[in-house]
Amino acid sequence: MKKNMSMFAMCLVVLFTLACLLPGWETPAYASTNLALGKTAVASSVKNSALAANKATDGDSTTTRWGSNYTSSEWMYVDLGSAQSVGSVTIKWGVAYATAYKIQTSSNASTWTDVFSTTSGDGGVDAITLAAAATARYVRVQGITPATTYGYSIYELEVYASSGTTDPGPDPGEEPERDASFGPNGTHWPSLIPTPFMYDTTVANIIDVSSSWTAISTAIAAVTPEQAAAGVLIRIAPGTLTGNGAGSGNTPVLQNLGSSSWTKRITVAPRDGYGTVVISGGALIKNVRSVAFAGLIADQIKLEGCDRSALAWSKVTRWLAGYGIANQTTSMVEFTEVVMPDSQVVDGDASDFYSVSSGPIDGWRFDGIYLAPHFFNPATTPKPHTDTMQFAGSGAYSNMTIRDSAIFSSNNCSIQTGSLNGLILEHSYLAAGSVARSRYPFLAGGSTEAGTAAFNGNGTNFVALDSVIIGGMGSASWTSVTNTKTSYVYQASQQPSSGAWTVDTTLSATNPTMPPMPTDTYLNSIWGN
């Protein structure tokens, strides 16, 4: 069988080479290095372990391959490791090829952009030059219509940069380059949408305002689409911003501002650097679009219906929340290096991220966050439910990414996933049980119940990469697991479709080294101007 497949593959190569010489065939203009070679690949399904997604990036285009389940909507993507300028993609199909499919790119593996599509695929080798180079870390083949009843099979997925291009890196004065960590380290900045850096003095439009909600609202309302595209940084003078409470029934401090059509966020941050503007009394920010708030200290803050907005480089002392809003999808929201450093006795979650009826949330990213636990008061009736991070809601909530983050369990768990559809846990640290209690012991007046679960709840299409999970697992369905350590031997129903958990019963408060404690001294050192 291997001999026959090799001959078949050789014929394809010969046919492809001859086809390149025919009039009208454009030879792809790409650099010679295959950016996907040896990189991590993730798939919606694998028929068996011998057909894992990584077989399509191992450099062997004749004997090893990815093979999906026998359904039409299967996909696989490759993680290039960092953002690259992608100029062309080559797919070396097996017998089970796609007649209709898309090539998609992404910066976060949750929100995808179509860069190529066809409805006339004929198998063999597809060498595709993109109409325009796309900057992306992730490249996906999304199947639409299979040619056979056997799903899809790819011997090799290759990705090439545009000829002569290199990754230019960040522009001078813009956000720092990410350095993988567990928790904040001053190298993460909102990037799903271009976002002016809070200390960038070269931003085209710098607007200084007093420390008042009215001044901030007036400045945002005055921004034109042309100014937003050029770059806007609104700098707040030192002071205290008094809120009206962060609950949905409270009066918003900012409302109905910005625009989802802006191609770049505007940034609102303290003029004199992190910590010089403090929010007291809780703040509800509602339906404010394409705005990044950064460098703040707040007791409670909630972004509600804030499509394409962000909160970054901020300390929250009591409650953090992001909600959807009715009659729209709230997407591409980012919480970047947002820190809740201290445990408390509170009858509620440390952070909540909710959809609402007819108001789904989708494609959010939590990057470099650090969340300490809440412990409920055992005298409270009925008994409260406390999670450190909870996803829930009456509408759909999907495609969340948690990266470079550290989350310690409350009485119930570290992360309550509810019925979340789509989670990427990348290079993150979740701790429950005795390890979590070594940093955050139960508090006087607080419950000592449970606290041993890293995850709780259901959910589907979960992926784990390069992470550490110390504690119990909920009932979620894991599509793929790569290089992720766990302290438990999980049940059969908790095993991934592709890959495997790496069980390490020696995981402890010192193995691996616990994430840095985000003291004020530490936060000033990484976020200060």
Automatic annotation (TrEMBL):
Signal peptide: 1-31
Keywords: Signal
Domain F5/8 type C: 20-162
Name of this chain's protein: F5/8 type C domain-containing protein
Source species: Paenibacillus oryzisoli
Transmembrane segments: none
Matching InterPro entries: FA58C, Galactose-bd-like_sf
SUPFAM superfamilies per UniProt: Galactose-binding domain-like
Region annotated Disordered, chain positions: 163-186
PROSITE patterns linked to this entry: FA58C_3, PROKAR_LIPOPROTEIN
Highest taxon of source: Bacteria
